[in-house]
């Protein structure tokens, strides 16, 4: 292992250091500076409510999505801003564009800065695992958009795992369209007027969508287990 580490060029370590610095910067800015207060959902919503008639306000929202994802900032305040300030339909469109931009910016920054180190450490075993993952990763990448995992973590993990850019983009768009529509409408509704009934409906629809998008993955897993069981039974019979 030490020999592998010694063969890694300084440029690779430098890129990883930049990636770590970006993530650390996001954490420190939220924790110890006024950015944490600015990124508060109430203050952010009030600020954009003042700017809502400005032609550059939607562009600023999308830029905040893309820039925030690079340093791991949470996306939830921006989703609420989109729904509350711009309404359910325009807000959905802006949130969708912003989340896609955020997914791709986080993905590409991690891929450029951190992927090389993972490849060098993983070697041939990583490449074999990636070939298997590439064949089976599409629907899991769609389904993961309906899990409670942090948005930025999903993007970073996909980049490190070697998911191809077209596959990541397609699965992100397919997963984010229903997820963004759901979150934009219900987050804005609950922000304005909290209701237990609406909250329960929100969570129920979220779980239902997770099950629907996960069905191809569950079905493929069941088929693989069936094939494995049949193969094992044949081997037992041949051995008798």
Number of helices in the DSSP assignment: 11
Oligomer: single chain
Strand content: under 5%
The rounded Rg comes to 21 Å
- Low-pLDDT parts are none
- Rounded to the nearest angstrom, the distance between the terminal CA atoms is 45 Å
Largest sheet geometry: none
Helix/strand order: HHHHHHHHHHH
- The count of β-strands is 0
Query: Helicity, in percent?
Result: over 70%
Structural class given helices, strands, pairing?
mainly alpha
**So what's the overall shape?**
flat
Summed over residues and divided by their number, the pLDDT gives a mean of 81
Sequence-ordered SSE layout with sheet pairings:
Blueprint: H1 2-7, H2 10-32, H3 35-38, H4 41-51, H5 57-70, H6 76-86, H7 88-136, H8 138-143, H9 151-160, H10 165-192, H11 196-239
Helix pairs in contact: 2-7, 4-6, 5-7, 6-7, 6-10, 7-9, 7-10, 10-11
Explain the overall architecture.
With 240 residues, this protein is mainly α. Helices cover 86% and strands 0% of the residues. The protein has helices spanning 2-7, 10-32, 35-38, 41-51, 57-70, 76-86, 88-136, 138-143, 151-160, 165-192, 196-239. Helix 2 (10-32) packs antiparallel against helix 7, helix 4 (41-51) runs parallel beside helix 6 and helix 10 (165-192) runs antiparallel to helix 11. It is flat and about 75 Å long. 28% of the residues are buried. The mean pLDDT is 81.
């Amino acid at each position: 292992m030490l020999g592998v580490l010694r063969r890694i060029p300084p440029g690779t370590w430098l890129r990883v250091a930049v990636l770590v610095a970006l993530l650390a910067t996001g954490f420190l800015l939220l924790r110890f500076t006024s950015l944490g207060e600015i990124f508060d959902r109430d203050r952010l919503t009030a600020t954009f409510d003042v700017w809502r008639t400005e032609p550059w306000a939607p562009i600023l929202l999308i830029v905040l999505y893309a820039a925030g994802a690079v340093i791991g900032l949470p996306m939830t305040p921006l989703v609420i801003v989109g729904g509350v300030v711009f309404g359910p339909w325009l807000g959905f469109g802006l949130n969708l564009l912003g989340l896609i931009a955020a997914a791709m910016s986080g993905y590409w920054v991690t891929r450029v800065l951190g992927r090389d180190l993972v490849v060098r450490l993983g070697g041939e075993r990583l490449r074999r695992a990636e070939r298997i993952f590439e064949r089976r990763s599409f629907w899991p990448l769609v389904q993961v958009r309906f899990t409670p995992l942090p948005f930025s973590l999903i993007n970073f993990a996909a980049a490190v795992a070697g998911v191809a850019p077209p596959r990541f983009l397609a699965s992100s768009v397919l997963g984010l369209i229903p997820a963004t529509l759901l979150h934009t409408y219900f987050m804005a509704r609950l922000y304005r007027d909290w209701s237990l009934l609406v909250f329960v409906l929100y969570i129920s629809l979220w779980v239902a969508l997770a099950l629907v998008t996960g069905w191809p993955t569950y079905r493929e897993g069941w088929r693989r287990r069936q094939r494995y069981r049949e193969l094992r039974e044949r081997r037992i019979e041949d051995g008798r």
